[in-house]
Amino acid sequence: MLRQTLAITVAAVVLFAVAPVQAGTLWATETILDTGLNPFGQDLTRIRTISNGFIDTETNDGAIVAANNVSDTFGVATIADVTYTHRLDWVVPPFAEITSASLHIYALGFDKDDVSVEVDTIFDLGNLSGLQTSFDLGGILATLQDGSLNVLLDNSNERNGWFGFNKVDTFKSTLKFHYTPVPTPTAALGGVTLLGILALRRYHRRSYGA
Fold it and tell me: Closest Cα partner for 179 from 123, 54, 95, 55?
């Protein structure tokens, strides 16, 4: 009888221990930028942040190009297309659902006289956990695939570029998204410890009369 009671108590403790905890919504950003410090090529930086205090900065061009598929036209005044990828699989804890997202693109647009105008535009992507996987943003195509957002800036479209300029220097892009983390099985460990101690003390008292 004592063993049965102890087993039931321990089972209850284990079930309580693995009950998932639903954390609040977090927001995260991934920024890819060209600092412009290298006049002969790219000088990339990638910054990742989460509202829980996480921050990671990468300055190795090769690592950023490999991880984020950054084309050599990023950070360059060009009429050619620009492509890159914002990744979503780096957040800790991982996301269960992305409730909202926005894409913020910064660029310099050049007219036919090479006069530049700085432009930044924010595109609302909505809920990235929904059924929509392709976003036509008017000269910009964003496609959600395998936990990443692939971005195409169609600069060569009728030689007008996606901002209406002859040439465009896209030098910064930020993806910001709010997400609900995957529930974690670490609920109330203090309560689990206390219940376990009480169960063992009852068992000792009944067994040895302490």
Answer: 95
